[in-house]
Amino acid sequence: MALPTRPTASWMNTLDLPSRLFETSGNDYELYEEDQDFVLSLELPGFDPAEITVTWDDGVLNIAAEHEDETRGQQKTYHRRFRFPKKVSEEDIAASYRNGILEVRLPKVTGATVTGTEIPIET
Fold first, then answer.
1. CA–CA separation, 25 vs 7, rounded Å?
2. In this predicted model, what pLDDT tens digit does every residue of 63-96 receive, in sequence order?
3. How far apart are alpha carbons 12 and 29 in whole angstroms?
4. pTM, 2 dp
5. Does residue 20 lie within any of the structural domains?
6. What is the domain count for the chain?
7. Looking at residue 77, which CATH number applies to its domain?
8. Which of 14, 79, 103, 111 is 20 to 30 A from 23 in CA distance terms?
9. CB of 94 within 8 A of CB of 35?
10. d(C-alpha 18, C-alpha 92), whole Å
């Protein structure tokens, strides 16, 4: 059996698999710092705000969405996690959803950095 010689995208199309199954990252979001906030802008077209859940847990922002289209018999799900390198003021996190775009603002705690535990490197 010969190995494929074409780029992955072309030979994967012949397998009739969902196109997003093997993607390692997408460009459905933008994350940047603005003034004293982290701002996450995420494309979630076709969802109702009630179908989107945004949670914060110990430095990790979780976003999940689920939509069922009964007329087409389809279910659309989305889940993504974002870890933040600095402390965030949990009480002041705000989210808004307009025109298929979810925007989450996470205010940074000034001067705080999450350092974690340093792992020694053996030689």
1. 18
2. 999 988 888 888 889 999 999 877 889 999 999 9
3. 25
4. 0.67
5. no
6. 1
7. 2.60.40.790
8. 103
9. no
10. 38
